[in-house]
Design brief:
Length: 492
């Protein structure tokens, strides 16, 4: 018998007749699926599902979790993703029975505690952002972007400006910005960055016009640079009749230091699953609340949670509402985590979060500046972008260095983004990592840079110590294997 170096798949564990559950004896008569469902919905063949005992099932999922990389198991410096530690007190609060077992269709009178949490979080986010009203409905950042743009669209149409169909997006923006603009029915128009990585004011003046509906910005921007001309940008766009949208992905750098509302933004989305320590990754869960100025408050999705005396209730009478954007009221478990984090940290704590995030990013940048090209040399905020162009001269690309980092037990930073930096590597350490971790990461990158010059094959053939070797990513993208179709190797 050949013993595989990797653990068996759940299908390989399967033995006919085994099961991992025990149901109580039926107390109702059995019904045929043919009596319940239309024939077109009924399988013609039995589903090929694995049949395993409970212990094998537990081992299967435990092995999968051990193979997965997460912020609890190692450094995760993905730029613009804020993969910070998720405090365990957040998890404890989110699992309290009165919250975890509440049903979204319960009567308001039975969930007053949950509604109070929602209302309190709305008020805290209004204070943090400088907005006049907040909805928690959107399920994630991009969903928040789309929600805000739909509010902008409704606002312009209500004011006889329905012809405004262009949204200005910087060339360094998150990819979701132009995608959200297109999905909301707008045309995305690019504004260039200047030599300092900021919005080019002259190019902004060129692209803004009578069709401008909005500009989408994050500040600091995706390069980790604070847009010091933000007030001039505001005046240019507002004078043209457009609105300002704030992408809150980078709020981690400025909490309790400066607010989007004070910069002149008309709407903002926040990533509770980033800035406010909800679990992040694996496709969710997320939460992307949207805040707006008072002129846009009547366009928010309904319902809102409002306080009426000592009672909390859903408010559905919102005059110009764009309608519901999420079933029930969004992802409540993430609200609980964010609320716990904000109350645990307090004003001073949130200030220190931003201070530490900025300090950590600048520390790494300073340690790596002699080994890598740094296209924008000024102080960064919570993240920065370096270039692997020096290493490319030796035939080693940023992708190769990212693969080599896996051998050091570090998740690679974001690579090849934003697109206006050649061989870009975008690094965000967050505020939660220790100096020892930052030094380990810097030492690893410096070693890899030396290998690129003196032993490039070591980098080009990486990773060397992971469960599988380097994948053929082109083949994986074009010919993915999405289902189990039997054992591919014969067993002796």
């Amino acid at each position: 018998m050949v013993v595989s170096k990797s653990s068996p798949l759940i299908f390989e564990r399967s033995r006919e007749g085994r099961y991992a559950y025990s149901l109580p004896q039926k107390e109702v008569e059995s019904q045929s699926v043919n009596d319940v469902f239309d024939e077109k919905f009924i399988r013609k063949e039995k589903a090929e599902l694995p049949e395993v005992a409970e212990l094998d099932l537990v081992r299967h999922y435990t092995e999968l979790s051990n193979k997965n990389f997460g912020v609890d198991s190692g450094f995760y410096p993905l730029g613009s993703c804020t993969m910070k530690y998720n405090p365990k007190i957040n998890e404890k609060v989110a699992r309290l029975g009165g919250f975890a077992e509440a049903h979204p269709l319960q009567d308001e009178s039975q969930v007053q505690g949950s509604l109070e949490i929602i209302h309190s979080l709305q008020e805290e986010l209004k204070e943090i952002t400088g907005m006049d009203e907040v909805t928690l409905q959107p399920a994630a950042g991009a969903h928040g972007e789309w929600t805000a743009l739909m509010i902008f669209k409704a606002y312009h149409q209500k004011n006889g400006q329905g012809h405004r169909n262009e949204v200005i997006v910087p060339d360094s923006a998150h990819g979701t910005n132009p995608a959200s603009a297109a999905f909301a029915g707008f045309k995305a128009v690019t504004v260039k960055s200047n030599e300092r990585g900021e919005v080019d004011i002259e190019d902004l003046k060129r692209v803004v016009n009578e069709n401008t509906a909005a500009i989408m910005l994050t500040n600091p921007n995706t390069l980790g640079i604070f847009e010091k001309n933000i007030m001039e940008i505001r005046e240019i766009v507002h004078e043209a009749g457009g609105l300002l949208y704030y992408d809150g992905a980078n709020l981690n750098a400025i909490m309790d230091k400066v607010r989007p509302g004070d910069m002149g933004f008309d709407a903002v989305h926040l990533n509770l699953h980033k800035t406010f320590t909800g679990p992040h990754g694996g496709g969710g869960p997320g939460s992307g609340p949207v805040g707006v100025v008072k002129e846009l408050a009547s366009y928010l999705p309904k319902p809102l949670v409002v306080k009426d005396g000592d009672h909390y209730r859903y408010e559905n009478e919102i005059e110009n509402s764009i309608g519901r954007v999420k079933p029930f009221y969004g992802n409540f478990g993430i609200y609980l985590r964010a609320y716990t984090y904000i109350r645990t940290m307090g004003n001073k704590g949130l200030q220190e979060v931003s201070e530490a995030a900025v300090l950590n990013a600048n520390y790494i940048k300073a340690r790596l500046k002699d080994e890598f090209d740094i296209p924008f040399e000024q102080y960064c905020k919570h993240e920065f972008v370096l270039s692997g162009s020096k290493q490319k001269e030796h035939g080693v690309r940023t992708l190769d260095m990212a693969k080599r980092l896996l051998d050091f037990g570090v998740h690679p930073p974001t690579i090849y983004f934003p697109l206006n930096v050649d061989e870009g590597m975008m690094i965000e350490p967050t505020e939660t990592e220790s100096k020892e971790t930052l030094d380990y990461f810097c030492d690893a990158l410096i070693q890899i840079s030396e290998e690129a010059k003196n032993d490039p094959d070591k980098v080009l053939e990486a990773p060397h110590h992971t469960i599988i070797d380097r994948l053929d990513e082109t083949k994986a993208a074009r010919k993915p294997v999405l289902k189990f179709d039997g054992l591919h190797a014969e067993k002796e």
